[in-house]
Amino acid sequence: MPQEYYGFSFRNNARSNNATVALNNAADISVIVIYFVVVLAVGVWAMVRTNRSTVGGFFLAGRSMVWWPIGASLFASNIGSGHFVGIAGTAAAAGIAIGGFEWNALIVVVILGWVFVPIYIKAGVVTMPEYLKKRFGGQRIRIYLSVLSLFLYVFTKISADMFSGAIFINQALGLNIYLAVIMLLLITALYTVTGGLAAVIYTDTLQTIIMIVGSFILMGFAFNEVGGYESFQERYMEAIPSITAGISPSCYEPRADSFHIFRDAITGDLPWPGLVFGLTIQATWYWCTDQVIVQRCLSAKSLSHVKAGCILCGYLKLLPMFLMVFPGMISRILYPDVVACVDPEECQKYCEASVGCSNIAYPKLVVDLMPNGRWLETFVAQEQKAEASPK
């Protein structure tokens, strides 16, 4: 039987009867070593293949990319370990509406390829600050956007991805969280700085495949545990923690609209007007003006490849509902006392957070359900690619 430690399961070794972390087996060690070797090999291959002696060669991969690595890299640049922790955790707590954030991108990413990128290409720019300088004139606005973008990425995206990814590494390897982050940053920097955007795009493509395959496997195990989709719907609405004394039922009972994406404009936690209109405005800013996203599109050999890459990314954005949202909700079904805990003392015991433990929904599901040799490389891929981009 697995033993519990801060909400994560550690399986007993049958021969020694001692609790061990999941990486103490040949399968996991072999897979993670092979993963790092392959990623570095892909980075070196891209570095040799691409001319990095010019600005366009380093930052735009020589404008030689075809549609399929562009689409995969767009998806990988957006999805990170923070998504697997945050989206799955929110789904465990409140249902499928959070998946609407991902599906909203289906429309916006097409706008990127058909409306915005042609303008950027015609302007002949490499970066978004450069475009603003050409459009409005002056050096100050260019410097302002550069500094602002750097701060936003460090404090809102990279830091969150590093922390959530380090949770997995810490639990798997027993390493200090800061040491885990430093190791991943160093490995990522090795191929990012030396290989430029080409290395990042090709390694993004590899890591996209790893994430999708690994997540599909976990989804299969998860649905098998709950007995299929119909049973999943029924059991989620019954997933209530056993310790609820003195706490309002609204704090621990699943929402009545848990399986609705479009929720009431007044009483919904994610009201449909905000999901449809407000989120679209934010998504347009992110998908159509963010340097990391636009940079992938500008690396294409032609506008046709840009559009095809955006379409591929749009299709891939359909997957988080199935790969993150549903597994997060299933985690609540399987571990209601942990994932859905509401008693501050119980939550503190499971995840060292008195406000709740829904954020460990996906990590706990992974460590408990995935077989040896399958799960760790998936989340190293999420964490590693989250840091990679020559901005």
UniProtKB/TrEMBL annotation:
Report the catalytic activity: D-galactose(out) + 2 Na(+)(out) = D-galactose(in) + 2 Na(+)(in); D-glucose(out) + 2 Na(+)(out) = D-glucose(in) + 2 Na(+)(in)
Q: Where found in the cell?
A: Apical cell membrane
Q: Which residues form a coiled coil?
A: none
Q: Which domain of life is it from?
A: Eukaryota
Keywords from UniProt, A to Z, are: Cell membrane, Disulfide bond, Glycoprotein, Ion transport, Membrane, Sodium, Sodium transport, Sugar transport, Symport, Transmembrane, Transmembrane helix, Transport
Which Gene3D superfamilies does UniProt cross-reference here?
Answer: Sodium/glucose cotransporter (1.20.1730.10)
Q: Which Pfam families match?
A: SSF
| TM stretches of this protein | 21-46, 66-91, 103-121, 141-163, 175-202, 208-227
GO MF terms held by the record: D-glucose:sodium symporter activity
Q: How does it sit in the membrane?
A: Multi-pass membrane protein
**A GO-annotated cellular component:** apical plasma membrane
Q: Which family does it belong to?
A: Belongs to the sodium:solute symporter (SSF) (TC 2.A.21) family.
Protein name (database record): Sodium/glucose cotransporter 1
The record's gene field reads: SLC5A1
